[in-house]
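REVIEWER CHECKLIST
Item 1: Sequence provided? yes
Item 2: Single chain? yes
Item 3: Sequence as submitted:
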Amino acid sequence: MNVVTPPSELTPKDFTTDQEVRWCPGCGDYAILKSVRSTLAELGVQPHNTVFVSGIGCAARFPYYMETYGFHTIHGRAPAVATGLKIANPELDIWVISGDGDSLSIGGNHLLHVLRRNVDLQFLLFNNEIYGLTKGQYSPTSHPGTRSPSTPMGSVDRPVSAASFALGCGSRFVARSIDTLQKHMPTVLKRAHQHKGASFVEIFQNCIVYNDGTFNRFTDREVASDNQIDVVHGEPLIFGKERDKGLRVRPGSMELEVVTIGQNGISTDDILVHDETNRILATMLVAMDPPAFPVAIGVIYCDPADSYVDAVRAKTAPLGNTVGKSDINALLRKGHTWNIE
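Item 4: Structure as written out by the authors:
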């Protein structure tokens, strides 16, 4: 018998296991874990109906620390396992946890398909721009010049933009947050959970051991207000310590530019209003980076479409009970078989 806990009575402790959390002291994963637990409690999500699926890497330990069902799968294949789970039981609330190395290297193919198919789940990508668990090799998101055991003279690769990749795959929900933003992250996670379909959330996460401070250019308190912009649907794209900077489309072009309100005749009426259903705008927002532009966080794109699982279930529903009882032994021996003497 399933015991359902009233949402009003759930707390983060209801999602906390007896396992010792083992990440490096100061790792950003601790903050993400805290935020996810509190978010699930506020949402009233039932632990017995929730599944966390992970691949390989530091982030992949997540299922051990959540008092829910969980699968610690293999490198890059978490989206495939999660897809099978969702099709088998659409009532499950599935969260996929992955890192930039796990999901954008060997797992890139699987991430592509779970997003383009629009499987109804939440995909959280912890991006620290490094391979942490395997001792600091450069990853697909590492910036050129990154020195690591695998690139002692500095990486020459051009990095993958996780959010740009998600949009290119056809994701219908793309958002970002930062591990240290404990008020911001739950808001994004709640929106992701509310979305029907695949929700992709990139979380900038600091690896204090192998890539400490890689996001300081927009996360340090002294520069954060000028180098990050929290986008909100229906609100003007304004940022800055004095709230006097904004984004607009440069006249005569299809490019964004940063302008200062009150200078050169610029007023708030000239500032772009965020439209989270506009894929072209989303594509421009995720491409921004300091010092020329602020980094966009929040719900950057949200335009729901039919869920893959709903479509699959609709196709198979007419079969009903006509197929009969499955017999795996008979299935394995069906068709052409032979014996080797």
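Item 5: Key structural point noted by reviewer: The two ends are 51 Å apart (CA to CA).
Item 6: Recommendation: ____
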